[in-house]
Amino acid sequence: MASEENKRPRTRSMFDDLFELQPNRSLMDTMNDFFQNTMSKSIPVQVKESNDSYNLSVQLPGVAKEDIDLEMRGEYLHITVDRQQSITDTKAGYSSKKDMYLERRIRIPSDAMRQHMTARYDNGLLSISFPKVKGKKIDID
């Protein structure tokens, strides 16, 4: 006789996703994608590509510009938020400290001009733009 616990459907774990991501790739590639995508979803990023640039929109509501760090390391853009906030309420007689550390690593395509990257932060939205390398037109004789 089956118990009640055995009748419940099994919930998916992140390890189920690990082995179902892309079965035709090597185990190491699959694991890299899994950990990069699963562990870095705390900073939402939207990437849009146009004919002449790549544009990233990063949602960071409630984060001060001074708490955001952008750094290019090789072919990856690292976005880090490190915020420490102290809250003191003298009337209630308590104080607390809130720490927030978020990190996201995004691979930048090889045709992006990394040295011409621009970034702007306005009202919780970080906008990052990379112009694309323009190809050289070759005349045919």
From TrEMBL:
Residues 36-141 form the SHSP domain. InterPro entries: A-crystallin/Hsp20_dom, HSP20-like_chaperone, Small_HSP. CDD domains: ACD_sHsps-like (cd06464). It holds the Pfam family HSP20. SUPFAM superfamilies: HSP20-like chaperones. Belongs to the small heat shock protein (HSP20) family. This is Hsp20/alpha crystallin family protein. It comes from Thalassobacillus hwangdonensis.
